[in-house]
């Protein structure tokens, strides 16, 4: 049974169909990469899965349960954690306080549990030395790590990552991939939207390409990247 299953999911803004009948299954333990041109509907798909947006049609199942009608906090507590494309930490709070807050309010943990899991997550994401810094004073790499740490603090079984490598140097993106590999080794299922293709290819088991809100390709990374339609639409290359 798939951990996450989308059945003909659709969402429109007025006449603009942003998600057009997408069906997709993600197996437990899998790392799925999502690619697509700007405005293709990738973040919208995440918003539909996390419950930040209500869908117009279709159904979403998670861990064998229909979660279509659940609120975002209910989906989070059920194990769907996510990061946001634009990191949104509480800038006037420390890194530690940000992660504790995510563990308490997103993960439903007691304060005592939240302190413990915040320490573990900060160590795992390489942020322990920054624990007492204000989140607003972090470098871009550390802000991305904090975004990851806040999602991990909710103890997800399914982790949705939205462009977490964007704006990083190649070396920094490599560090982030190494952290994601460790997270994957813990058995966490990941779906990662990313424009930094080499970072995605370093970890994804499978790629799903979206164009104009529809599935353009879905399969093993090398096969998808050499698909002439993907090269034409996404990479701007003529086949
Ligand atoms: N609240 C909204 N109202 C109207 N249109 C919207 C809204 N949110 C998104 N859109 C439109 O929906 C389309 C898909 O947006 P989305 O952010 O999902 O794309 P994306 O693939 O994540 O893009 P990017 O790679 O640039 O982040 C875009 O044309 C966008 O302008």
From TrEMBL:
Keywords: ATP-binding, Cell membrane, Membrane, Nucleotide-binding, Transport. GO terms for biological process: D-alanine transmembrane transport; L-alanine transport; L-isoleucine import across plasma membrane; L-valine import across plasma membrane. It comes from the Bacteria. Residues 4-237 form the ABC transporter domain. Gene3D superfamilies: P-loop containing nucleotide triphosphate hydrolases. The keyword Cell membrane applies. One of its GO terms (cellular component) is plasma membrane. The keyword Glycosyltransferase does not apply. GO terms for molecular function: ATP binding; ATP hydrolysis activity; L-isoleucine transmembrane transporter activity; L-phenylalanine transmembrane transporter activity; L-valine transmembrane transporter activity. This is ABC transporter ATP-binding protein. It comes from Ramlibacter monticola.
């Amino acid at each position: 049974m798939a951990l996450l299953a989308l059945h003909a999911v659709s969402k429109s803004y007025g006449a603009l169909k942003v998600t057009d009948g997408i069906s997709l299954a993600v197996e437990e333990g899998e790392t799925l990469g999502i690619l697509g041109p700007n405005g293709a509907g990738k973040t919208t798909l995440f918003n539909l899965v996390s419950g930040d947006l209500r869908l117009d049609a279709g159904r979403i199942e998670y861990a064998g349960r229909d979660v279509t009608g659940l609120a975002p906090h209910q989906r989070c507590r059920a194990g769907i954690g996510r990061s946001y494309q634009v990191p949104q930490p509480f800038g006037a709070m420390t890194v530690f306080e940000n992660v504790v807050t995510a563990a308490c309010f997103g993960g439903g943990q007691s304060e005592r549990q939240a302190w413990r899991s915040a320490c573990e997550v900060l160590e795992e994401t390489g942020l322990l030395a920054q624990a007492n810094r204000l989140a607003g004073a972090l470098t871009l790499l550390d802000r991305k790590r904090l975004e990851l740490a806040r999602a991990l603090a909710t103890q997800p079984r399914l982790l949705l990552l939205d462009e977490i490598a964007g704006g990083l140097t190649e070396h920094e993106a490599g560090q982030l991939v190494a952290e994601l590999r460790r997270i994957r080794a813990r058995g966490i299922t990941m779906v990662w939207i990313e424009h930094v293709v080499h970072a995605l290819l370093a970890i994804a088991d499978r790629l799903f390409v979206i164009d104009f809100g529809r599935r353009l390709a879905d399969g093993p990374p090398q096969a998808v990247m050499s698909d002439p339609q993907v090269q034409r639409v996404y990479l701007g290359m003529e086949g």
